[in-house]
Write a structure and sequence with these properties.
eight-stranded mixed sheet; globular; single chain; alpha+beta; 16 strands
Length: about 300
């Protein structure tokens, strides 16, 4: 296949309390709420999108907050960690900030030459900050976070699997290349050619328990593709023995979904038309936005959603 992905488009996770999760991602992490909508497959639940000022692909962390959700269990067959990119020299600032917010960051670890600060969101979702000198120039939102240390977007994700194959081959076919390997061979690093969200680590943990869905787990990881290549991507996935969906219109992008060989849900999402298709840039996230096919249900949907102060 001639097409390849430059990296991650967005990551979507399951959460519980929408107000608590908003306060964490907007106030503590300093991301902008760029879209306030609903889960199109379960309209009683918000879909909240946090990103840079414009909501560019590669910066967008999205959440489905189910107020009554029980905790999931991170394990094999899941995204085991979501990593954000920050400038070199920023981790001490972030350690203090996260401690003040009660996020209890772990110790900084060295991974393939990068300093990595692990922590969790309020539902226990494993997150990381990766400090690198080549963090790209940002388009930052106004936030309480100092611009010099602010999150630039995604660095990547870690997939927890019972073995590295055949998912590693799938990633290679998607345009990733293996760039590193841990000494014990259990972590393989794959990189695409983008400048944000370009890393996927494949972590082999054959004895680890199977992951269980719930609050604090990733629902899916989406990769960026071009609209004109959608047919080629579906054929590529079918040729790999997988069962992709048809193209689904999500209003702000068009998507193909597929479960890879160990059941991690992958999405292949177009960069167009973007979050400004139905809101002005400066007004992003200020109101509940619904795709036109849900507008006739607005009154009932709004009545079913919990209060959310932004």
């Amino acid at each position: 296949m001639d097409a390849s992905t430059p990296g991650i488009h967005h990551v979507t996770a399951v959460a519980s309390d929408p107000q608590r999760i908003h306060d964490f991602y907007a106030e503590t992490l300093g991301l902008r709420l760029v879209k306030r909508s609903v889960n199109q497959d379960d309209t009683d639940v918000y879909h909240l999108f946090y990103a840079d000022h414009e909501g560019r692909p590669g910066t967008s962390m999205t959440l489905f907050p189910y107020p009554e959700a029980g905790s999931g269990r991170v394990g094999t067959g899941q995204v085991a960690a979501v990593s954000f990119l920050v400038p070199a020299g920023s981790l001490e600032y972030w350690r203090e900030r996260l401690e003040e917010a009660g996020a209890e960051p772990g110790e900084v670890v060295d991974r393939f030459g990068d300093d990595v600060l692990p922590f969790s969101d309020p539902d226990g979702l494993p997150l990381e900050l990766v400090a690198r000198p080549d963090a790209p120039e940002p388009n930052l939102p106004e936030s309480p976070v100092a611009h010099a240390h602010a999150i630039r977007g995604f660095f990547g994700v870690t997939l927890s699997l019972t073995g590295t194959e055949p998912t590693a081959d799938l990633l290679t076919g998607m345009g990733y290349r293996q760039t590193d390997r841990s000494a014990d061979g259990t972590r393989l690093r794959y990189e695409a050619n983008g400048d944000l969200g370009y890393v996927v680590d494949v972590l082999a943990k054959p004895q680890a328990p199977r992951g269980l869905p719930g609050a604090g787990t990733v629902h899916h990881v989406a990769y960026r593709i071009d609209r004109e290549d959608q047919g080629a991507w579906r054929e590529f996935l079918i040729d790999r023995g997988l069962r992709p969906t048809e193209v689904i219109d999500r209003k702000w992008f068009e998507s193909i979904y597929v479960r890879e060989y160990e059941n991690v849900l992958f999405e292949f999402a177009t960069e167009e038309p973007g979050y400004t298709v139905d809101e002005d840039l400066e007004a992003l996230g200020e109101r509940l936005v619904l795709p036109e096919w849900l507008e006739d249900r607005r009154a009932g949907i709004e009545a079913s959603l919990p209060a959310l102060s932004t």
